[in-house]
Design brief:
Keywords: Mitochondrion. The protein is α/β, with parallel strands linked by helices. It is built from seven helices and six strands. The strands form two sheets. Strands 1-2-3 form a three-stranded antiparallel sheet, with no helix packed on it.
Length: 218
Amino acid sequence: MSVEDLEKKKTIDLRKKYIGPSCKIFFSHDPIKIVQAKGQYMYDEKGRRYLDCINNVAHVGHCHPEVVKAGAEQMRFLNTNTRFLHDNLVLYAQRLQATLPDKLSVCYFVNSGSEANDLALRLAWHYTGNKDIITLENAYHGHVSSLIDISPYKFHQLSDAEQNQFVHVAPSPDVYRGKYRTDHPDAATAYADDVKDITDNVHKRGRKVCLCLMFLFA
């Protein structure tokens, strides 16, 4: 909750002054000012309700009372990092691994999707010794240097950016706006075949694909 309620224009002016321009805002021509959220809805300063279909932060809905309670109780008891020993860390990893195949037995806990994808890249490069990566057009993988370098929006939107020779872009599997749509007899296979073609071409050059980053973050 903010210390004071600002007029929307004042909020916009302060954002322009103190927040870096690369931190984009939704609907830049008329941005929505969100002041409250609950469940699947967010509310602006005028009380208008919006169905939240894009936020990738609140996975169980906004301000879920059980989540809020659990978070407050944990912060009241202990809030530190994983470099100290604590039972909760290993017990949670054990519970998580019980839902996975036996070979997936080691956990790395991270703070964001950016960290997860950066770690996936480093693990793939180290394990395979290969560099080639397949990513999706229009995909966003996170704002760390390693991920920006492989993201299509970098070399599509920035005139001075060139596509890395080890980065290969596959069409997004979108049957509404993509290369193969609802009128295609087997769109899923067609999209999969495009990825196979990229892999085959990499192999013809005497290289191998180390990772397919097929995530498309909202």
